[in-house]
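The authors assume throughout that readers already know how a fold can be written as discrete tokens. The format is easy to grasp once an entry is in front of the reader. For illustration, here is how one protein appears when written out as sequence plus structure tokens:
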Amino acid sequence: MYKITIVGSGNVGATIAYTLTTAGIASEIVMIDINNRRSVGEALDIRQGTPFCHPCKIYAGSYSDAIDSDIVVITSGMARKADQSRLDLAQANVDVLKSITPEILRYAPYATYVIVSNPVDILTYTFSKYSGLPDRQVIGSGTILDTARLRSRISEYYAVNQQNVHAYVLGEHGDSSFIPWSIANISNVPIEQYGDCLINKEARIEDFDKKDIEEYVRRSGAEVISRKGATFYAVSMSVAHICKCLLSGIDTTLTVSTMLHGEYGISDVCLSLLNIVGNTGAHSKVMLPLNSDELRALHHSAETLKNTIKQITI
């Protein structure tokens, strides 16, 4: 019996609540939003479908209803406006998060917090500093969605199950993210050799193109937004997977954003590495054998985030 509180009932928060319910990940879900009317409507809409899936108590509430939550998911924040810089958006959403933090911590100090709002690495850093919680209790969704997009695209090249693809996007959830190709593989076969290893060459749909894949990963979010106005299905499935791993008794490796303390020579910033996530939170990292170019890319990503942090008020 697990309780999850979701702060923010916009498209992302509501879809996360729906996904958690249909997947049977939580037995109780609280939806909190400054627009309580919206939260009531979203919770009611989902609750009326629960006879067809796993039993779940889902309702709109206030911060006090978050008591005894196992997980708190934070999706609150503003979407970027056409005339707004990334820096302005970062400061605006940092301010929103700072107003939320003491309210939710008063009732759920022992929960694991999953930060989803963007810019996610900056907000994960803010929440970690502002809350004072142990690192293992503070997780940003980070590049878990970027990694899913990467694996999805690679799987399309060879018409192979996405779960057979092992590749990651690391660093910032943003323009400075990178793919460590040196460790990417399909069923333990190095990614660049997989096509040549196929007996049936027709299984290879097209020639493997790293640049095409990198561009696909970078433009995916903007592509969806340009066509439907927002992204929320894939990110909701990603967050639901994080929650499932947090509540599982078996540790799972995920590319989520956490605080660094000297890993790869980087400290005092949150970005995505391969983390071990389980029922005690994000409690360890896997030090991947990155080559020199990949290490430079990681350090560049860290410096990009640190430069943003220097320019905002936390």
Q: What stands out?
A: The chain has a mean pLDDT of 94. DSSP finds nine helices and twelve strands in the chain. Residues 131 and 307 are 22 Å apart (CA to CA). The two ends are 36 Å apart (CA to CA).
